[in-house]
Write a structure and sequence with these properties.
six-stranded mixed beta sheet; 14% strand; six-stranded antiparallel beta sheet; alpha+beta; single chain; Alpha-Beta Plaits; 24 helices; Beta-Lactamase
Length: 740
Amino acid sequence: MIRSKLFIQYIISYFIVFLVPFVVMCSIIYLNSVSDLKEEIEQSNIGKLEQVATITDERINELDMIANRIAYDPRLTPYMMSHEYYSSEAINELKKYRANSSIIEEIMVYYHGSDRIYSSNGAYSLSTAFDKYNWDEDTVLQAVEDNVPLTMVAEQGAGKRDSFRYINYFVPMSSDSHNSYGTIVYLIRERTMNDLINNTLNDAQGNGFIISEQNQVIASSIVDEAIDRNSITLEDAAYGQVTSVKQDGENYSVAAIESEQTGWKFVIMMKTSQFFERLTNTILIMVLICISLFIVGSLLTLWLAKRQYQPIRSLFNSISQNRTLEAKGINELETIKRTVTSVFEDHEMLSETVYKHQSFAKDQFLTNIIKGDFSSEEEIDSYNETLYLDLNGDYYCSMIITLDKQQLSTERIIERETLYELFTDVSLKDVTAYGIDLLNMDAIALVVKFNGDKDAAEQIRKNFVKQIKEDISNLFEMKPMIGIGKIYDNKTMINRSYIEALAALEHKYFYSQGSSIYFEDIKEKEFDVGYPREDLLKVVQSIKQGDKEVAQETLAAIFIQLRSNELSVSFLRAICFDVINTVIKTITEIGVQPSQQTYEQIFDFRSQEQLHERLNDLVAQACKEVNENKKSHNEKLKNSITDYLNKNFMLYDLSLEKIAMEFRLSASYVSRFIKEQTGYTFKQYVQHLRMEEVKKQLTSTEKPIKAIVLDVGYKDVANFTRKFKNEVGMTPGKYRQTYM
């Protein structure tokens, strides 16, 4: 025999759970009269009506939301609709909106003062639409010009075997809450609404009807054919109750409710005599059920209590063996609850930490690689394992995919985001690539690793570049230039390959659009007279990137080459001055202005060693200022974006794409930048600003809560109330009472 207070509580609880409904059910059978059973049936039908009304209101809400989205859709403006070229795109957009709802047969848009109406199948004149959809001209003209929703029923193909009726729902279209500039017309087949009623009232005893605000029957579920749908009257009906009416000499019970949203009436009508058919048999059946339930329930109570207690006991024993239980005097269930809660909280904290930092750590890691911030492969490998990246290969290189600099638009942002996602993580046979968004260059860098020997890696690189170009051309109408650095067998040399890819792109003006420029091919376009053109390009790009190590290393290689070549004094001096000119021109372009004394010391060099030393100092100063400018730029951008959000957080259509358009950035970059600089995601930061503004207005104004919520950019007041309560711990109304 099990000895446990929890097990005894289980037995008692099961008996209580069994006895309560048993006693209540017996009371209903023996203490209630026929009228109670009748009321139960009536309330059941009212409940079904409320269910139909709720489902119908949800469908109408969907239509209203679609209308609101159309009103703010820049592709569905009167200009776009009537434009010779863009009208087809607008029609296609209407088709998409039509597909968003399961009940819409057709969707139309009419703009006030126009003689045409636009649908997902094309544009019609008003007269053609009247004939095509059998509309009453006066009623429709009033509906499309009014400022309130209207429902109308029209029969299609009247008198024919395949005739059917349309429910026409007219919704005003406006950019604010007062004045409309057009009307959206939804065509819904009556059969669709009939199916909706039938699915909900499938076991109802009476006929179900939906009646519009103009007292037209717009949908029905017919069980009794004797009830004429066109003779229904609700003059004596009370909404939310069941009333008796007399029609054609027969007594009927009518249950009716009215939707506050649409003004539609939902009705179930049945013969009153139907209520009494079930009484005799029901009483006998319920008595037998009560007796059976008491016998069976008593036996099952003990069996279920023991069965349900066994898993808890097993878990408790397992926890007792694996954890030290500090709490005394608590039962097994409470012990399990505390243990599971502790494990869950630990897991949530760990998951949240990993999720928040993984994508940003990956981007930062790859950026540091191309910048050359790692001094050894071991250091790179440690980060590689932590971030679960596959960066271990036989050879490595960098590539840069440049995009056409065009005017930023929504389509342009989407293309850039799609392209970045395409190359975020590419894994093919013997090659893996990771993408990095180079915002300032309007380009995407790739860190690529290859498997195989040197010759195989060279061929794989060419095939990979070819595959990249094919993938881009299949997705977009663009031909990007691709700069490709040399292949190295050490991860720490990836930044050298990156600098070489930048240098290769400097020759893009010698190539046609869409070309692939390999750094090693640049030599073929230069005269081999000892002029260090290739290295000068690397110096230029290193300075622009603020990479002092690569810049000084390449500068040293230039002077070693000059000392080893047998050049005339005049040609050697000319090359030295060209090196000086290249360095000074580069640092001037990036905004670095050395003193006049620095210039004089450089031009007045006495030897190559002296010139090398002074240029080294100048390059170090330039790279330092480049890196400081980057930090300053980030701080300035952070302040600008933060100010923009602080001023515009109440806009309902505020989005990452809108901010990207404002600052000419990509949406993915804005998302990462906001997270990196503020510690919040975009949605979290905007919600934080809105919450603070709501708190402020709740305690400093007497505006209605709904108006405050709408003012800060929320459309769904109920949804906001849940968010507010989750964050603050109380509802907005309670917050106002507490702190005002």
